[in-house]
Amino acid sequence: MSHTAQITSHRKPRRSTPRVSIRAGVAGGVLSTIAVAGAAAPANAEPVTETIEMPTLTAGLAGDFARSAEATQQVANTLDLRAQQDAAAATAAKTAKTAQAEAERKAEAKRKSEEARKKAAEAAERASRAAERTTLSNASSDSGSGSSSSSSSSASDTASKATSQATGSAAAVLAFAQAQVGDAYILGSTGPNAWDCSSLVQASFRQIGVDLPRVSQDQSVAGTQVSLDNLQPGDILYWGSAGSAYHTAIYIGGGEFIGAQNPSKGVIQASLDYDPPTGAVRVL
Predict the structure, then answer these.
(1) Degrees (nearest 5) of the Cα angle 125, 274, 153?
(2) Does residue 267 contact residue 180 with C-beta atoms inside 8 Å?
């Protein structure tokens, strides 16, 4: 046996061989085959001049990488489109919710307005019946036309006295309200020749730049609550409870008020005893 003879290795081969090693082995085998073939050729044979083009070993890996990158980009595009769709859906849902809330608010405001008008109409009807009963009672107790004329003159004198006692803004409010005495009462009217109770109050205070709410229940809480024992000319009287009043008028002093009373009476000036109010607010 030769001293240079190869000794078989007892090491176990690796279980997995990298692809590059395999390809290297294949390339080596090809080269070995070519070398053996060349050695076995006759001595006088012409040398082999044909060029063999070896395949590029990394072409497959480049293709895999390209396909992987393309797939990754497609996934990214899909996720971006989905995110845009989700954002658009969220915006649409928010807009729809806002629109629904606004519609509900308007519906509630309309309902309250209708309810207020209904209460005002009912209050006007009750006031009308009360006024008729008061008129019949007064007619039975009056002794004649002379007495009525005296009472009317007394009321006029009281109104003039109250107006003269009012000063500044209150005087301007009362002057406008007194100028409307005798006008018609029509529910929902805002002048100039017909009013309902709250529109007359609103228009009177508008003369001095005070913008009051349109309906009685809101006017009843538009200022500071005051006692009926501490009234001043220009105070707003209300009937019903604060925040849900069904009728308003203006106190002119001397125990009297001016207001658009009801369809049968129109705008009148009368004593608090004629129709006692529930409360009052002061805005001046």
Answers:
(1) 120
(2) yes
Give the domain CATH number at 227. 3.90.1720.10
Q: Among residues 259, 277, 281, which one has the least CA distance to residue 269?
A: 259
Is 62 inside a domain boundary?
no
What residue type is 44 in one-letter code?
N
Query: CB of 193 within 8 A of CB of 170?
Result: no
pLDDT tens-digit profile of 31-48? 454 444 455 545 555 555
**Distance of alpha carbon 39 from the chain centroid:** 97
Residue pointed to by tokens 């005051």: 226
pLDDT category of residue 237 using cuts at 50, 70 and 90: very high
Q: Which has more pLDDT, 243 or 64?
A: 243
Structurally, how many domains does the chain consist of?
1
Sign for the CA dihedral angle at 254, 255, 259, 264 comes to: negative
Residue 115 resides in a domain? no
- Beta-carbon neighbour count of residue 102 at 10 Å? 10
Does the residue 254 lie in any domain? Answer: yes
Residue 20 pLDDT more than 50? no
**3-class secondary structure, 23:** helix
Average pLDDT over residues 23-35: 49
